């Protein structure tokens, strides 16, 4: 891979992992328009590691509090005397909400890979779920706190995350859409989506790592290291500025962008 390929693909992965605009829709464009070869599973693992480190570091206080409280619910560690803390409940909600993604990914990965990775599917989902995001942004009541979301609400967001395995849907986009429809504010929907992304990234990242190790292929560690660092930097900056944009402008800038991107993909198919 050339430096330009590494730079652009890592930047795209870092930005689109957390923006509600679909990473798959963007990663298909360089190969389709520029004729680049597939970056390979080893590079996918590297950029996933970078984005995972970014979200964990950005929400380190929340993640640390949730980890301590979660172990406390099991009677272990410094939080074992406070088993009723909300951080512990939130940790369980996120774990349970990640189950649908794991099940659908395990059972349907081959079907999705074989039948749903076409440009036509990505164009359709980019537009349809972009419109759905816009609808949620318009009707958002913002009358429910994360504490009031409950396990049922968290599971609904988790089920929607599983739908994002369809390329072009956007994991962050559909989970934020569901969160806003359940009454969360735009910022709280985004924050819950980011926390939910931690196990959401770990599962496919772990699977890709297993496949990489099992094939015993030689890897270019310089390429992987550079890709991981670039993905980390772009993802960390993306999270920070996205939360600012959402609090001021809402989701509409991303809805408009998705519709434009979808139109470009439709044009590409037609030509």
Distance between the termini: 28 Å
The stretches of 5 or more residues where confidence is low (pLDDT under 50) are none
- Estimate what percentage of residues fall within beta strands: under 5%
Elements, N to C (H/E): HHHHHHHHHHHH
In percent, how helical is the residue content?
A: over 70%
Structural class: mainly alpha
Average pLDDT over all residues: 87
Radius of gyration in whole Å, from Cα? 19 Å
Q: Please, how many helices?
A: 12
Count of the domains: 1
Shape: globular
Describe the sheet with the most strands: none
* Annotation, overall tally of beta strands: 0
Structure write-up:
This protein has 271 residues and is mostly helical. The protein has one domain (3-14, 22-32, 41-270). 79% of the residues lie in helices and 0% in strands. It has helices at 3-16, 23-34, 41-58, 60-73, 86-97, 99-115, 119-139, 146-163, 171-181, 186-215, 221-249, 252-270. Helix 3 packs across helix 11. The chain starts with a helix and ends with a helix. The model has no long low-confidence stretch (mean pLDDT 87).
């Amino acid at each position: 891979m050339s430096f330009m390929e590494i730079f652009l693909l890592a930047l795209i992965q870092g930005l689109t992992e957390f923006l509600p605009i679909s990473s798959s829709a963007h990663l298909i464009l360089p190969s389709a328009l520029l004729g680049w070869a597939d970056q390979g599973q080893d590079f996918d693992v590297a950029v996933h590691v970078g984005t995972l480190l970014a979200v964990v570091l950005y929400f380190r206080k929340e993640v640390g509090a949730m980890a301590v409280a979660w172990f406390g619910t099991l009677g272990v560690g410094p939080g074992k005397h406070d088993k009723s803390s909300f951080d512990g409940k939130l940790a369980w909600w996120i774990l349970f909400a990640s189950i649908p993604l794991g099940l659908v990914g395990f059972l349907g990965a081959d079907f999705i890979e074989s039948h749903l990775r076409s440009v036509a599917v990505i164009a359709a989902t980019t537009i349809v779920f972009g419109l759905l995001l816009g609808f949620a942004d318009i009707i958002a009541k913002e009358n429910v706190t994360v504490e009031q979301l409950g396990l049922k609400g968290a599971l609904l967001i988790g089920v929607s995350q599983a739908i994002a395995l369809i390329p072009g849907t956007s994991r962050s986009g559909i989970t934020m859409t569901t969160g806003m429809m359940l009454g969360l504010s735009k910022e709280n929907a985004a924050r819950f989506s980011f926390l939910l992304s931690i196990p959401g990234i770990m599962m496919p990242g772990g699977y890709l790592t297993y496949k990489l190790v099992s094939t015993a292929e030689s890897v270019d560690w310089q390429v992987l290291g550079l890709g991981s660092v670039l993905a980390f930097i772009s993802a960390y900056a993306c999270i920070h500025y996205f939360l600012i944009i959402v609090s001021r402008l809402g989701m509409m800038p991303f809805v408009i962008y998705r519709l434009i991107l979808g139109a470009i993909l439709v044009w590409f198919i037609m030509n």
